[in-house]
Amino acid sequence: MSEQAIGQQSFSEQESIRRAKLQDLTDQGQSPYLLTRYPVDAKSAAIKEDYERFDGQTVVIAGRMTSRRIMGKASFVHLLDSQGDIQAYIRRDDVGDGAYTAFKGYDLGDILGVKGRVFKTKTGEISVHAEKISLLAKCLKPLPEKWH
Questions:
Q1: Spatial separation of the C-alpha atoms in residues 55 and 19, rounded to whole Å
Q2: Which of 26, 38, 58, 78 could lock onto 67 through a cystine, CB 3.0 to 4.6 A?
Q3: Which of 85, 74, 141, 147 is nearest to 112 (CA)?
């Protein structure tokens, strides 16, 4: 693992890349630390437990991105909130080109806010179809490996 020394601190290659992404966001005037409140109105466990009530409803959720599958113009992510995790479906045509391009640059561990409609996928997984996605906080340290 290569390391880069900055002042007294030493960062791994992944941390240096994440810090460079943060600097790029800041240079563009999009600091992910300026937003201090986000209007969350639903939690993952409540949506899953009472799907019939939430089906088709627009909800606002937030959580740490723990997995991501990018498939061209659409992606699936899992967001981990205080009560569990939930899948979000993000489609370029729904969130816009700029937001989708920015989303593809986000890292695992980043905190995201998603506003969208609750639905079930073809495989039966309860998900949120994103209408809007926001980067709420940038994670500068890589997440620990799953099996360690």
A1: 39
A2: 78
A3: 85
pLDDT at 40: 97
List b or e across 23-35, with b for residues whose CB sees 16 or more CB atoms inside 10 angstroms. Answer: eebeeeeeebeee
Report helix, strand and coil shares of the chain as percent, to nearest 5.
Answer: 25, 40, 35
CA angle, corner 131, sides to 130 and 136, nearest 5? 75
**Phi/psi at 67 (5° precision):** -155, 155
Q: What is the mean pLDDT of each run of 10 residues along the chain (148 residues)?
A: 52 90 89 87 97 97 96 96 97 96 94 98 97 95 76
Neighbouring CB atoms inside 10 A of 73's CB total 12
Sequence letter at residue 7: G
Q: What is the DSSP letter of 31?
A: -
For residue 37, give both structure tokens.
């409140």
The pTM of the whole model exceeds 0.90 = no
